[in-house]
UniProtKB/TrEMBL annotation:
<dbReference type="Pfam" id="PF02696">
    <property type="entry name" value="SelO"/>
</dbReference>
<feature type="binding site">
    <location>
        <position position="279"/>
    </location>
    <ligand>
        <name>Mg(2+)</name>
    </ligand>
</feature>
<feature type="binding site">
    <location>
        <position position="134"/>
    </location>
    <ligand>
        <name>ATP</name>
    </ligand>
</feature>
<keyword id="KW-0548">Nucleotidyltransferase</keyword>
<comment type="function">
    <text>Nucleotidyltransferase involved in the post-translational modification of proteins. It can catalyze the addition of adenosine monophosphate (AMP) or uridine monophosphate (UMP) to a protein, resulting in modifications known as AMPylation and UMPylation.</text>
</comment>
<feature type="binding site">
    <location>
        <position position="279"/>
    </location>
    <ligand>
        <name>ATP</name>
    </ligand>
</feature>
<dbReference type="GO" id="GO:0030145">
    <property type="term" value="F:manganese ion binding"/>
</dbReference>
<comment type="similarity">
    <text>Belongs to the SELO family.</text>
</comment>
<feature type="binding site">
    <location>
        <position position="103"/>
    </location>
    <ligand>
        <name>ATP</name>
    </ligand>
</feature>
<feature type="binding site">
    <location>
        <position position="199"/>
    </location>
    <ligand>
        <name>ATP</name>
    </ligand>
</feature>
<feature type="binding site">
    <location>
        <position position="122"/>
    </location>
    <ligand>
        <name>ATP</name>
    </ligand>
</feature>
<feature type="binding site">
    <location>
        <position position="102"/>
    </location>
    <ligand>
        <name>ATP</name>
    </ligand>
</feature>
<keyword id="KW-0479">Metal-binding</keyword>
<keyword id="KW-0464">Manganese</keyword>
<keyword id="KW-0460">Magnesium</keyword>
<keyword id="KW-0808">Transferase</keyword>
<feature type="binding site">
    <location>
        <position position="100"/>
    </location>
    <ligand>
        <name>ATP</name>
    </ligand>
</feature>
């Protein structure tokens, strides 16, 4: 392999002086040196050729023993110094102190075509930040992360990516539902890729420890490499930086809402400073449109991270980042003003996004009310989000009889017999008002349908699809994993051979583990 290694994080930031891989509190350091754990019998399951080429790798590299060895954690690329990051975080609203990369080990950084990429292994063994855990990952969660990272990228959602997934040959003990019944599962390692894996929590830990010097060093490093248009080392620069992070975070969450993605565990240590979707744990996709849905069993009672609350949690998390950056600014009002921008911009951006989903591109004073009623109607009876919005483009501007209103979206209803009486009446009224609104659009049906198809995906990684790929992979069959990987490269395109995946969640998957509720266990 001939990679253009250009490390910055572990060359420009302070390192933990202790080199022993023991659990401990780390102070005045942004990372600790640590090497991946050797595995019993590694084997490569899948790799992204497209991303490999972006990194300067060839197809031959992907087939090599060297690639398998490095990206399963069995060897370290010559001249590189792997490490685990130190960070803290608020988990479910409470300060959790030091967290850090408990099962992620950063291998090196690559500069290719003037783009900087950090590569890290998830599941490659314990680090000083593993606390009581083993630092390993299992095939189940690794497949979910691998597929979803690339699916989100092709959906146009800001995200970290995934280069490869390998089996370790080791068995890993996990309690899937935290119910006291652990079982052994196949161990696996994913290589994650992003410009940087810096999180809100990287800043929080130094602010919490009143280590202003390291906080400033980290902020200046982040600005220098990832916000080069911002002036580092000044109060104005730190405010400019915070405004950029706030803007990027809002953009990311608007995209989540657009495609029906629920992160599941929006702790501040899972929030990327670059506004990327990071840490694919107990995530899920909305099947039926439900604002109160969360995929995370840990969050079942309070539903803090439910679909309809993600935008508010984004703001809450940004407040914690503002608190962390305060020592560099020492003035609250300008930070509060930026947070208010987020609060004020959200309704406008959300309205614009939702209007585009239903093909409204001109301005009308009643659009917000029309969309509010739509979101209420979608929850009257279980209605598949992806199918409903994708098929809505079939509604014509031309006059339709009442019986024709629901025909284009009827497939989206899980129990079609429930669409009667009051529910039917509300839908009929909404479609009548929607069609009247379409009359005010300047573009024709075909052009509007084309624009809607570029906003509303036909294919997403439905929860049951991921589980099917996991079940097959557990038996040594990776064909479905590859089928989904290829399918999700073109989520907005009609793919006639894949129509079987443009369907509602099957009934058997409604309450099946891995298809409806998930835990953080991986």
């Amino acid at each position: 392999m001939n990679l253009n290694i250009k490390d910055t994080f572990n060359t420009e930031l302070p390192a933990d002086p202790v080199h022993e891989n023991t659990r401990r509190q780390v102070t005045q350091a942004c990372f600790s040196y640590v090497k991946p754990k050797s595995t019993a019998n590694p084997s490569l399951i899948h790799a992204s050729k497209e991303l490999a080429l972006d990194l300067g790798l060839t197809e031959d590299d992907l087939k090599s023993e060297e690639f398998k060895s490095i990206f399963s954690g069995n060897s370290v690329l010559s001249g590189t110094n792997p490490y685990a990051m130190c960070y803290g975080g608020h988990q479910f609203g409470n300060w959790a102190g030091q967290l850090g990369d408990g099962r992620a080990i950063n291998l090196f950084e690559v500069n290719q075509n003037n783009k900087q990429w950090a590569l890290q292994l998830k599941g490659a063994g314990e680090t000083p930040y593993s606390r009581t855990a083993d630092g390993l990952a299992v095939l189940r969660s690794s497949i979910r992360e691998y597929l979803c990272s690339e699916a989100m990228y092709h959906l146009g959602v800001p995200t970290t990516r995934a280069l490869s997934i390998a089996l370790t040959g080791d068995q890993v003990l996990r309690d899937v539902l935290y119910n006291g019944n652990p079982e052994y599962e196949k161990g696996a390692v994913v290589c994650r890729v992003a410009p940087s894996f810096i999180r809100f929590g990287n800043f929080e830990i130094f602010s919490a420890k009143q280590d202003k010097k390291t906080l400033k060093t980290l902020a200046d490093y982040t600005i220098r490499h990832f916000f080069p248009h911002v002036k580092e080392g000044t109060k104005e620069g730190y405010l400019h930086f915070f405004r950029e992070v706030t803007h990027n975070t809002l953009e990311m969450i608007i995209h989540w809402q657009r495609v029906g993605f629920v992160h599941g565990v929006m702790n501040t240590d899972n929030m990327s400073i670059l506004g990327l979707t990071i840490d694919y744990g107990p995530y899920g996709w909305l099947e039926g449109y439900e604002e109160g849905w969360t995929p995370n069993t840990t969050d079942r009672q309070y539903k803090r991270y439910r679909y309809g609350n993600q935008i508010n949690i984004g703001l809450w998390n940004l407040y914690q980042l503002a608190n962390a950056l305060f020592p560099l600014i020492e003035e609250a009002k300008p930070l509060e003003d930026i947070l208010m921008e987020y609060r004020n911009n959200y309704p406008t951006k959300y309205l614009s996004m939702m209007k585009s989903k239903i093909g409204l591109f001109n301005t009308d004073k009643n659009d917000a009310e029309l969309l509010n009623r739509l979101e209420e109607n979608l929850q009257l009876t279980e209605t598949d989000m992806t199918i409903f919005f994708r098929n809505l483009n079939r509604i014509s501007k031309d006059n339709l009889s009442n019986e024709d209103y629901l025909a284009p979206v009827m497939d989206a209803f899980y129990v079609q017999e429930e669409v009667k009486g009051d529910i039917l009446e509300k839908w009929m009224q909404w479609f009548a008002d929607y069609q009247n609104r379409l009359q005010k659009e300047s573009i024709g049906d075909s052009q509007r349908a084309e624009k809607m198809n570029n906003i509303n995906p036909k294919y997403v990684l439905r929860n049951y699809m991921a589980q099917l790929a996991i079940d097959d992979a557990d038996k040594g069959d990776y064909s479905l994993l590859d089928e989904f990987f290829q399918l999700l490269k073109n989520p907005y395109q009609e793919q006639t051979s894949a129509e079987k995946w443009f369907v509602k969640r099957p009934e058997w998957a409604r309450h099946k583990v891995g298809c409806s509720m998930l835990s953080c266990s991986s």
